[in-house]
């Protein structure tokens, strides 16, 4: 069949998308019956906004959660019948998070990443203004260890000058190349202007089909 993947992806994300469930622990995960794509990033990186932009909805993912408070994995079914599932991972790197909360986060994420066969790819969101931080590098190493392939996605690209965005993109690309499971393709996005969003939809669909 001759198909136009960007168009298929556009239609898929314009169609039915539903919140399935929140899983505060591994025993609450949905049955692993469809391919999953996970979204990770520091608190306030723009993850909820990106999920909303990807899915053309305003309130699919809640924005401005109290940073560091949400410790659940949130699952969203995309397509009817379901084609793939988006997994919103709890934000990390909140400076004031208590130590045991950070520990709990690490266990939850590590167990999820290592045990989830249907997890096809992860997206690691990084604020364009700040570039990679040590907490991001830490998550990238966790993904490497779990052998989960991931894209780095720069967020809030509208907030900085194009020349600065390009420089951050290049620096991030060069550093990511040192991480075994980091995909060579990165994205620069803005949930505000929609930059990079259509490309990301196509990649999500493509990864789900692997
Ligand atoms: P989360 O904590 O990672 O889910 O981050 P949110 O999606 O709640 O975004 C944090 C803040 O950044 C909010 O005030 C958003 O309005 C803002 N924000 C998110 N994405 C963008 C973007 O692409 N451009 C701009 N200008 N602001 C953004």
How would you describe this protein?
Helix 1 crosses helix 6. Helices cover 36% and strands 20% of the residues. The protein has a 7-stranded mixed β-sheet with strand order 1-3-4-2-5-6-7, sandwiched between helices. The longest helix has 17 residues. With 210 residues, it is an alpha/beta fold. The protein has one domain: Rossmann fold. It is built from 6 helices and 7 strands, in the order αββαββαβαβαβα. It binds guanosine-5'-diphosphate. Guanosine-5'-diphosphate binds next to helix 2.
Provide key terms for this protein.
210 residues; alpha/beta; Rossmann fold; 6 helices; 36% helix; 20% strand; binds guanosine-5'-diphosphate
What's the short version?
36% of the residues lie in helices and 20% in strands.
């Amino acid at each position: 069949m001759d198909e136009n993947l960007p168009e298929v992806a556009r239609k898929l994300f314009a169609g039915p998308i539903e919140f399935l469930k929140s899983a505060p622990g591994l025993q609450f995960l949905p049955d692993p019956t469809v391919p999953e794509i996970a979204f990770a990033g520091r608190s306030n990186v723009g993850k909820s906004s990106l999920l909303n932009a990807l899915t053309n909805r305003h309130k699919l993912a809640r924005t401005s959660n109290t940073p560091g408070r949400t410790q659940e994995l949130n699952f969203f079914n995309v397509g009817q019948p379901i084609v793939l599932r988006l997994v919103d991972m709890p934000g990390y790197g909140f400076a004031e998070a208590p130590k045991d909360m950070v520990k709990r986060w690490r266990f939850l994420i590590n167990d999820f990443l290592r045990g989830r066969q249907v997890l096809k790819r992860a997206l690691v969101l990084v604020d364009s203004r700040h570039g990679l931080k040590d907490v991001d590098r830490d998550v990238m190493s966790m993904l490497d260890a779990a052998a989960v392939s991931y894209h780095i996605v720069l967020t809030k690209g509208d907030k900085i000058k194009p020349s600065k965005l390009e420089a951050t993109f290049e620096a991030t690309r060069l550093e990511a190349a040192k991480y075994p499971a980091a995909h060579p393709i990165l994205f620069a996005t803005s949930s505000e202007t929609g930059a990079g969003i259509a490309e990301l939809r196509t990649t999500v669909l493509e990864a789900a089909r692997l």
